[in-house]
Recover the amino acids of this structure.
């Protein structure tokens, strides 16, 4: 592994090296290697069951790698606890929305912002300066992120009462509030109509422009082509291609892999 | 989104209306409410004051239930951990206070209280450390087992007084400074009755009103603490853990640590309640710590509305006071509360008074307006 | 610890432990099946058992009273008592499903809410039994009740219908006819149930629903029916357990269910909740372990032994000895 010479626009935020994940006899990821540069949007695509979400789960600490390594900001995070990884600066959303449903939109985002905080029992109980400082910071941060996502008009609505689209956006807001360097979005446009999808992709570009690095799983090839800087293609747990969208479009292996899912692609 | 402001105003509860009052009025209201609460046993209002029993004693029991409900609410309501053995912590607190103030050590109560609370908190951590990793409904059964083990250990250990329990537990220290007369309603109009007075403040055998004052004070302190903690990172982390443990963990919440913290906090309050109870009662035996009480405590939390501190207080008053007031139905209270648990779970799982978030809602609305104005101002100035 | 006592009475402790264990196992089936299908701890199942003990008790008291009877008539009475206990428990189980659970299951309520409902139901059922003389009093029936069955808040004893014969020795212990009856009939019931769930159409429906309720529904399995069936079978087994319990222990009380329920649940978890054969294994192991434990530490620690086993199992092997799942439990 000595291809460090490829001069990319930024540093490498995340490096996945020979990542292998096995469940019993099943190999979900097989020696997958790729990296994400600072400030780019990397698309992770592949047919259903290719191992995209598994890869996310390994990065965010849900699964420990069977072998291989995950390096974030220069240090290995393989085997770290999930909350530690989140606090180090990797945030994510979920394919099926997992908000804190009976908390308000604002509170959802505050929980995210608390990833940067360490107020404990004593500090909260005696309203120590640390608590006040962190509450103010959290609140400012939360409102900022909600405004960015266009959710600031109704911050006290329970998450469960928000529209589907707003719930999806709230998930991104919550992830942004944790103050991450890398945001992993797991099919954020699932269930959207084409117009909404385009809107969301514009939003994701703006997220990147704010200085976040984005790792995006998306099923819809056309969308991915439009928004990403680079694309990694997985099939059956293996990486079959990597490159700029234009390169991926013409890659015969990718075309072959996607042939079976043509109708979904077209939708 | 789903409710317009007008509808919200219509459906607004008492709490919301109170929350919208200006701050000095609010404080004044609360003080008045507290004064009334303190004066309640002296007023001996007809109908409310239960016939044939000591009103002060009943009210003290109510405060103990309030305390326990507030503690259990942290575990069940905030953190979403179903604890069926909460009486175990109550027992640890009571027994520690009993052991330390009687023949084993003869400490004064004020020294034994912190130890009792410490012991119950430690027992909470010791129980929580291994068990908080198991699935939610399994946790319920493990805690149930814990509560029973504590009781069976008490029954079978000679050193703990076995089934006859421990006598002569120390009372709180007090000094009779002056006497306060009660009201007498016998003639139809309230009259000051100087033959029926309460010594301020002496913790005696007959007059239980000073214990009630002590219990009420502790409840108020715990209420304040509860509010401060709930409205902080800790409270949010508890709720997030209850809502979706995995998502919370992935948002940087060390959920195990916070669950343990909730468990320990609950155990702290439970132990405190147990120790106060032991001191008032002056004797305890294992019969005071049956599984039944765990269920009554749970009923208090669920009936009132888990997650809402005022709701669980109402629940505690219902569970503790009604059976005392209507003693003729005492035998039926378990039946009634069992039925209430079932009916609430089926028809209104959020309880009678579900949590509301109006106060914070009002605050942030103002802030958003400010934020929007600021943003607009910036834009216009740039233009 | 009293090792001498354990070794000197090893055979007796083991055989009576197996008898207790067989009863635990029969009750455990109810927990395990409902958990397998609904992922719900049927906390009130202990009361299903308790009602069965009273049904067995009332039947024998009404038919026999205090008089002694011939062996033939005795056997007849006992068979009737068994039928009554099974019918009673099954009825209670079905009512429970209808009143306490069905709506929650339909609304897909959180498990904890369902558990709270179950706890409420458990207390209602126990208290209804405990207060039945008071309730009878409202209708002026307390004298009749007193004559036949009296109140349920104190221990009620079963009349002795059959002589408990000593059959054959194992070590120093003379195995009695009741020991054999309890163990053998429990195992027979379990085999019948196991075969029923494995081979019958209804059994397949239950297994399918346990595995994947949605697909099962698509395949034409009536899930409400399957759930009802689960409760019915659990109730029948609890009724049989109640009858055997009355033969072996001979007394019952309105709150007898609680401790037994926790133990049976322990047995279910020990064997692997959701797993029918696991319930048998778990029950037998628990019964024996409890007997040995109480020999070692003193009988007053008997219940503590069971609770400690429960806690330890949940902590270290929550899937139990044979593993979980009714659906996957071999077809």
């Amino acid at each position: 592994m000595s291809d460090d010479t490829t001069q990319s626009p930024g540093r490498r935020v995340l490096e996945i090296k020979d990542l292998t994940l096995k469940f019993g006899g099943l190999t979900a990821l097989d020696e997958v290697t790729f990296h994400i540069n600072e400030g780019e949007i990397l698309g992770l695509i592949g047919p259903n069951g290719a191992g995209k979400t598994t890869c996310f789960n390994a990065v965010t600490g849900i699964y420990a790698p069977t072998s291989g390594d995950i390096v974030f900001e220069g240090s290995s995070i393989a085997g770290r606890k999930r909350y530690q990884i989140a606090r180090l600066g990797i945030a994510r959303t979920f394919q099926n929305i997992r908000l804190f449903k009976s908390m308000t939109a604002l509170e959802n985002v505050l929980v995210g912002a608390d990833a940067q905080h360490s107020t404990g029992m004593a500090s909260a109980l005696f309203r120590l300066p640390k608590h006040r400082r962190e509450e103010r910071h959290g609140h400012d941060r939360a409102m900022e992120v909600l405004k960015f996502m266009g959710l600031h008009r109704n911050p006290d609505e329970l998450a469960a009462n928000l529209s589907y689209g707003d719930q999806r956006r709230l998930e991104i807001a919550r992830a942004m509030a944790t103050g991450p360097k890398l945001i992993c979005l797991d099919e954020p446009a699932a269930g959207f109509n084409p117009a909404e999808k385009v809107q969301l992709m514009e939003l994701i570009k703006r997220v990147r422009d704010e200085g976040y690095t984005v790792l995006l799983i998306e099923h819809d090839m056309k969308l991915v082509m439009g928004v990403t800087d680079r694309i990694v293609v997985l099939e059956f747990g293996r990486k079959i291609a990597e490159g700029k969208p234009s390169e991926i479009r013409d890659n015969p292996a990718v075309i072959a892999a996607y042939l079976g899912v043509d109708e979904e692609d077209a939708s | 989104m789903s409710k317009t402001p007008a509808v919200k105003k219509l459906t607004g509860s008492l709490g919301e209306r109170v929350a919208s009052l200006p701050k000095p009025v609010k404080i004044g209201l609360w003080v008045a409410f507290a004064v009334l609460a303190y004066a309640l046993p002296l007023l001996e209002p007809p109908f409310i004051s239960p016939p044939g029993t000591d009103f002060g004693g009943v009210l003290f029991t109510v405060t103990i239930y309030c305390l326990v409900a507030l503690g259990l609410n942290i575990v069940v309501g905030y953190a979403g951990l179903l604890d069926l053995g909460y009486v175990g912590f109550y027992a640890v607190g009571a027994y520690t206070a009993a052991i330390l103030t009687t023949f084993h050590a003869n400490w004064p109560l004020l020294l034994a209280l912190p130890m009792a609370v410490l012991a119950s908190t430690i027992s909470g951590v010791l129980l929580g450390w291994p068990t908080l990793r198991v699935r939610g409904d399994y946790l319920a059964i493990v805690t149930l087992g814990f509560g029973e083990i504590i009781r069976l250990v008490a029954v079978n250990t000679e050193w703990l007084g076995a089934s006859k329990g421990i006598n002569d537990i120390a009372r709180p220290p007090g000094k009779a400074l002056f006497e306060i007369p009660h009201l007498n309603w016998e003639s139809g109009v309230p009259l000051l009755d100087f033959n029926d007075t309460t010594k301020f403040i002496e913790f005696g055998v007959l007059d239980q009103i000073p214990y009630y004052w002590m219990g009420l004070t502790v409840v108020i302190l715990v209420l304040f603490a509860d509010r401060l903690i709930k409205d902080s990172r800790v409270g949010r982390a508890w709720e997030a853990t209850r809502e979706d443990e995995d998502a919370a963990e992935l948002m940087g919440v060390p959920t195990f640590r916070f669950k343990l913290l909730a468990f320990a906090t609950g155990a702290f309050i439970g132990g405190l309640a147990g120790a106060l109870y032991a001191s008032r009662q002056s004797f305890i035996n294992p019969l005071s710590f049956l599984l039944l009480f765990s269920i009554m405590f749970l009923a208090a939390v669920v009936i009132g509305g888990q997650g809402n501190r005022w709701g669980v207080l109402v629940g505690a008053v219902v569970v503790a006071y009604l059976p005392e007031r209507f003693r003729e139905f005492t035998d039926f209270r378990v039946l009634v509360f069992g039925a209430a648990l079932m009916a609430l779970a089926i028809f209104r799982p959020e309880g009678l008074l579900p949590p509301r978030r109006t106060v914070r809602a009002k605050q942030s609305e103002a802030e958003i307006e400010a934020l929007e104005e600021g943003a607009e101002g910036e834009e216009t100035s740039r233009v | 610890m009293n090792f001498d006592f354990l070794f000197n009475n090893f055979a007796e402790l083991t055989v009576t432990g197996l008898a207790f264990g067989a009863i635990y196992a029969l009750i455990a089936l109810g927990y395990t099946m409902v958990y397998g299908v609904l992922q719900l701890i049927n906390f009130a199942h202990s009361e299903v058992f308790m009602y069965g003990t009273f049904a067995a008790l009332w039947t024998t008291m009404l038919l026999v009273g205090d008089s002694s009877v011939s062996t033939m008539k005795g056997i007849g009475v006992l068979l009737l008592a068994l039928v009554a206990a099974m019918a009673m428990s099954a009825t209670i189980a079905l009512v429970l499903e209808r009143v306490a659970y069905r709506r929650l299951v339909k609304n897909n309520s959180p498990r904890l809410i369902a558990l709270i409902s179950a706890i409420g139901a458990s207390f209602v059922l126990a208290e209804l039994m405990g207060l039945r003389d008071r309730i009878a009093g409202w209708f002026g029936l307390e004298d009749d009740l007193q004559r036949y069955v009296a109140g349920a808040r104190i221990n009620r004893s079963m009349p002795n219908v059959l002589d408990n014969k000593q059959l054959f020795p194992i070590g120093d212990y003379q195995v009695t006819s009741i020991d054999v009856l309890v163990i053998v009939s429990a195992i027979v019931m379990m085999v019948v149930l196991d075969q029923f769930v494995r081979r019958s159409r209804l059994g397949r429906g239950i297994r399918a629903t346990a595995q994947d309720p949605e697909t099962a529904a698509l395949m034409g399995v009536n899930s409400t029916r399957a759930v009802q069936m689960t409760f019915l079978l659990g109730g029948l087994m609890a009724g049989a357990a109640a009858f055997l319990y009355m033969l072996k222990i001979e007394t019952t009380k309105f709150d007898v269910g609680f401790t037994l329920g926790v133990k049976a649940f322990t047995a279910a978890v020990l064997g692997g909740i959701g797993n029918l054969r696991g319930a048998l294994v778990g029950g037998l192991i628990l019964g024996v372990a409890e007997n040995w434990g109480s020999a070692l530490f003193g009988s007053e620690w008997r219940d503590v032994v069971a609770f400690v086993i429960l806690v330890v199992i949940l902590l270290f092997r929550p899937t139990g000895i044979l593993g979980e799942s009714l659906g996957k439990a071999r077809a």
The radius of gyration of chain A is 19 Å. The CA atoms of residues 9 and 133 of chain A lie 36 Å apart.
